[in-house]
Amino acid sequence: xxxxxxxxxxxxxxxxxxxxxxxxxxxxxxSSFELxxxxxxxxxxxxxxxxxxxxxxxxAEIEGTVVGYAYASPYRVRPAYRFTVEDSIYIHADFTRRxxxxxxxxxxxxxxxxxxxxxxxxxxxxxxxAPSIGLHQAFGFQHAxxxxxxxxxxxxxxxxxxxxxxxxxxxxxxxxxxxxx
Length: 181
Known about the structure:
- This protein is 28% helix and 32% strand.
- The chain is built from 4 helices and 7 strands, in the order βααβββαβαββ.
- It has a 7-stranded mixed beta sheet.
């Protein structure tokens, strides 16, 4: 029986599960350009940094097991970028192609719009990462460019694909106040 995933804000107790999911992607894939998986303590520190900025960090669960996570982080730290966020989504290898990425990305977009963010950027590791590119396209992200051979992992050069999606009123109005992040 296939159970439907549920979404919730991440908790401190999710750090081990998040670290394990991410470690798999670091060790086996090109969606992350890290070469060594960070410790659970480092994952917890990174999560705390996202939350301290007022940005969303979600997990998806099936029957109490964390099967994916997503968060928004600042696109860049300089103040002029304060209305732009970058999304990150990672799914447990045993739970891909079940709509978990769609569930997480939809929630992430909505949460960032609620916080007054105006643009979301996806930086997709590997121009051959069709599932991630397709997911982002399904949510209105447009191809903004490809940085060729900017990473070197698993004995080969790897591209990154830049995608962008407007949030809320995007650039059609001036911001009325600082965003919450």
